[in-house]
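Thread: Modeling a multi-component assembly for a lab meeting

Hi all, long-time lurker, first post. My supervisor asked me to bring a structural picture of a complex we are working on to next week's group meeting, and I have zero experience with this. I have the sequence lines for every component (281 residues in total). Could someone generate the structure of the whole assembly? Inputs are pasted exactly as I received them:
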Amino acid sequence: MTRFIQAQHARILNMAVTSWFVTAVIGQWIFGVYVLLFYGTATLKGHPSDWNKVLPNGYVTGDIMGNVVVGSHLLLAITIIFGGPLQLIPKVRNRMPVFHKWNGRCYILSAFVTSLSGFYMVWVRGSVGGIVQHVSISINAILIIVFAVLAMKYARARNIKKHRIWAIRLFLVMNGVWFFRVGLNFWLFMNQGIVGFNPKTFEGPFLNILSFSQYLLPLLLFELYTIAKKSPNKRFVQVVAVIVMVFIIVMAIGIFSASKSVWLPRITEVLFTNSITWTNM
Ligand code: HEM
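Re: Modeling a multi-component assembly
Sure thing. I ran the full set together rather than chain by chain. Output:
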């Protein structure tokens, strides 16, 4: 009987989490197409200064080292956005173990390089936002490095159970910057305008809270899901499933809003015109 109840709980939770994953991947890949087309086109055309149409300190004439750091951050962002979800799909993992192994190695390497280049961009090059956001994204980077080391350690030790848990945690913190964009666009959509921060300085209480939530909230949700999977308490399992569903709705609204107002206009502009003219973030 207990086994039957646990199987039923697992089914409810799996349905909720699969819906969450599918929604997230659709949103991440729209973001990925934008990054690929915008930054890729600008770079391949030999106009890296076009990066500055989005990133204020993206390309600085004469600063070869800094430009290489930003370029590697953007290039690896593309591999992270497209390659990350593939690691978590059981069919891909089971049918293509060699791909899983090499894609995983690239993902881990990208995790290190992107975090370190991110540190450089925040603390040396300078980026938008205030000190709270700079500290919070730096904590995000430290979590990425720690989780990447642990995911790799358990893969090497063939401890698949622990490897899986740390790989999922890594995936969640690697997507912190994406959750930030989705959360911001959800907020702008719900308020039909800018509330809780200054758009010129990109500072304010809402952005401070969001910059920590971008990785703490997904991590918390994953821990709840893990506890619920083992719990015999039906009410608790249902509550967790409802929380996941609410998260999906928030994410879907954020993805819709970001796609409509930022990502898709930029994608179509690159595809259908020769010049890139937009300037907002
Ligand atoms: C590991 C996953 C990460 C991915 C996939 C990623 C991706 C990106 C992308 C695509 C951009 C261009 C922004 C846009 O066009 O909207 C960007 C910018 C930036 N990223 Fe990352 N990033 C990651 C992690 C980090 C981390 C951990 C840090 C900090 C420690 C960081 C710091 C920055 C900074 C400072 C910018 C420039 C933003 C600005 O000031 O204008 N990134 N990142």
